[in-house]
Amino acid sequence: MKPVACVILVLLSSCVSHDLPQGNSCNATNPIEDLPWLTAEIADLNDSELGKKYWFITQAVFRHQTVFIIKNCCPNCSTLPAPVYACSGQLLFRASDDQYKEIRNEKILWRPADYACTF
After folding, report:
1. pLDDT tens digit string along 8-38?
2. Per-residue model confidence as pLDDT tens digits over 41-60
């Protein structure tokens, strides 16, 4: 009976995923409204002349956690590399770092009403 129990135990343990879930790990149904720091960031962008036209925010997955990236497509701006934030609003790194290569499933989360970018 012991060999059968061992086989069952091995089979059951191999069915369990040990990866953290990917996707929205922020526990937010609508990150734009549910994350106060992100709401404030969007308000600041909407108050800026350049923010109203050229800035946008993407949501992605980095090492099994949801991240937010604040980007721009301003043709005449000289800006720092895009910051990548955790759900808490903590700056993780800037887009020029090697870590950016690990960003997956990036999608536009927010863009202003007067968005001027064509991509």
Report:
1. 333 333 333 333 334 456 888 899 999 999 9
2. 999 999 998 888 999 999 99
pLDDT (0 to 100) of residue 21 = 36
Residue 97 sits at φ, ψ, to 5 deg, of: -70, 155
Task: Quickly list DSSP for 43-62.
Answer: HHHHHSTTHHHHEEEEEEEE
Between CA 89 and CA 85 the distance in angstroms is 5
Rounded CA separation 52/12 (Å) = 53
Determine the Cα–Cα distance for residues 93 and 65; give it in Å rounded to an integer: 14
Complete edge-to-edge strand list for the sheet that includes strand 65-72: 91-94, 83-86, 65-72, 55-62, 103-110
Instruction: Measure the CA–CA gap between 36 and 46, rounded to whole angstroms.
Output: 15
The C-alpha atoms of residue 70 and residue 39 are separated, in whole angstroms, by: 13
Residues 73-86: pLDDT tens digits?
Answer: 988 888 889 999 99
Q: Tokens representing 7?
A: 């086989």
Q: The tokens 């064509």 sit on which residue? A: 118
